Amino acid sequence: MPRPTPFVHRNLPLLLLRAREALMQHYRPGLRAHGLSDQQWRVLRVLREHEGGLETGRLAQQAYILGPSLTGMLARMEKSGLVARQRCPDDARRSLVAATPDGLALADTLSDAIEAQYQDLAAHLGQARLNQLYTLLDELIVLPSHADAEPVEALMEP
Fold first, then answer.
1. In terms of pTM, does the model score above 0.90?
2. What's the DSSP call for residue 90?
3. Three-state SS at 154
4. I need a labelling partner for 66 at 20 to 30 A (CA). Which of 41, 55, 75, 110 fits?
5. What b/e readout covers 93-124, taking b as 16+ CB neighbours within 10 angstroms?
6. Residue 151's pLDDT is what?
7. Cross-strand bridge partners of residue 96
């Protein structure tokens, strides 16, 4: 049996996950103090940037949350008075979601603390390196998909 090809590169997906968790350790205490999960904060942050609200599919895409997870989360956030849902005027099968005044006030309250965390990050990395990190991540995000490539299993010998 031939020897497997050795890994030459570091495990980038794992490093990105670890970097995300390292960052979130700084943000989570403030979010939890206000009763928010990471995902709920992402929803509020996205909705804060879209005054008229968003259709649920677009919200799921922009907050990077799977649709079924978003549905349950929105029900809880609606119960808490953070968001409101209504039927789309163009298509009654779809829903629009908007932050309520309470949801916007909470996002505004958290924005100062979140911004302070970003300032701290910029102080540690340097603004130029932080900007470089943003640029590299943006470039990574738009890399062409290899969805048409052969799955790894197809490359393995029987």
1. no
2. S
3. helix
4. 110
5. eebbbbbbeebbebbeebeeebeeeeeebeee
6. 56
7. 55, 86
For residues 68 and 83, give the distance between their C-alpha atoms in angstroms, rounded to a whole number: 17
pLDDT by residue, tens only, the chain of 158 residues: 788 888 889 999 999 999 999 999 989 999 999 999 999 999 999 999 998 899 999 999 999 999 889 999 999 999 999 999 998 877 777 889 999 999 999 999 999 999 999 999 999 999 999 999 999 999 999 998 876 555 555 444 44
Look at the domain 12-140 and name its fold: Arc Repressor Mutant, subunit A (1.10.10)
Tokens in use for 6? 């050795």
**Among candidates 38, 40, 31, which has minimal Cα distance to 77?**
40
Helices (H) and strands (E) in the chain, counts: 7, 3
**Cβ–Cβ < 8 Å for 43, 60:** no
Q: Do 95 and 85 touch, CB atoms closer than 8 A?
A: yes
Angle CA(64)–CA(67)–CA(70) in degrees, nearest 5? 75
Question: What gap in Å lies between CA 87 and CA 91, rounded to an integer?
Answer: 7
Adjacent-strand bridge partners of 87: 95
